[in-house]
Amino acid sequence: MATHTQQHTAANSAEERDGSTIRLPAIWTRTLGELTLSYVPDAGVDMIPTRVYPASVEEDWHPHSTHMTEAGHLPMGCGALLVERGGTRLLIDAGHGRISGEDLEHFQHAFGHVRDLPESLAALGVDPAELETVAFTHFHGDHTGWARPDAVEDPRSLFTKARWMVGKGELESAAPGAGPVLAGQDERAVAVTDGTEIADGVRAWSLPGHTPGHTAWILDTGDGREVVAFGDAMHSPVQAEHPDWEVVLDTDREEAERSRRQLVEYLARDGVYGFGVHFADQQLGTVDGSGLWRPWTDADEKGAS
């Protein structure tokens, strides 16, 4: 497992390489009460801000330069979240999967930090074949990567025996005749509705709009706090301040904005933290009294507020 020193060194190396004022994270592990969370990196990409957020213009980003590279791009990480509490161990999302870094969408500048989720899991001492549950926020490719039918040579995917927990609306929104998104989807996928508890202290929160069945996962720390793994309900810390900024891939702009506003309001409660998988190196944090994203600090790790 990477130590804090190794994480810091990796971050500094990334800064020297790409000139970022905010970097993509290496593996990290944090403990909140009975809950242990580990970020499992898989890839990183620099985005073109005004294309990701088409309602914004270049001038809107001047106050947010600390979230950007010196070249004016917005770093976003791709990966998964390992959740451990008592006898529960599960993964939220499954990374980007095998990528060359060469095939770019129009809103992407470059894949600058390509990592490998299987290697990251191994560094955490986790055998993916032993994981029994993978919960998905939604079906976009950078969240289903290593669980897809073509992820590895084994058609069962990297996670050979896991059950797939998926928002009911996500399963129902699949286009007629489309092939399965996940390996063995018909047999292995469990349709989950809002409020369903899939494991001790892990329950679903329906936050549609980015996709029809987009689902956040609320994690109980056991000491009065909560962590919300909210997937793509927000893509960057700036959306806490600008929930009206839709994302280019939102399927329903109005519904996505309603979900973002619900999320920001929830994260502003005492003792509630959020995990934003794409939030560069500010993935874990909360919304402060002024409505801004406040990244996790060592003081947060010491106990319940």
Task: Please provide a brief summary of the model.
This protein is α+β, with helices and mostly antiparallel strands. 19% of the residues lie in helices and 26% in strands. Strand 11 and strand 12 (226-229) form a beta hairpin.
Uncertain runs: 1-21
Which of globular, elongated, flat, extended, rod-shaped describes the shape?
A: globular
Class derived from helix and strand content: alpha+beta
The largest sheet is: 8 strands, mixed
State the CATH topology: Metallo-beta-lactamase, Chain A
Residue fraction in strands: 25-35%
Element order, helices and strands?
A: HEEHEEEHEHEHHEEEEEHHEEE
What's the SSE blueprint?
Layout: H1 4-18, E1 28-32, E2 35-47, H2 49-52, E3 74-85, E4 88-92, E5 108-110, H3 117-123, E6 133-135, H4 141-144, E7 163-167, H5 168-172, H6 185-188, E8 189-192, E9 197-199, E10 202-206, E11 215-220, E12 226-229, H7 238-241, H8 253-267, E13 272-275, E14 284-287, E15 293-295
Family: Belongs to the metallo-beta-lactamase superfamily.
Protein name: MBL fold hydrolase
Keywords: Hydrolase, Metal-binding, Zinc
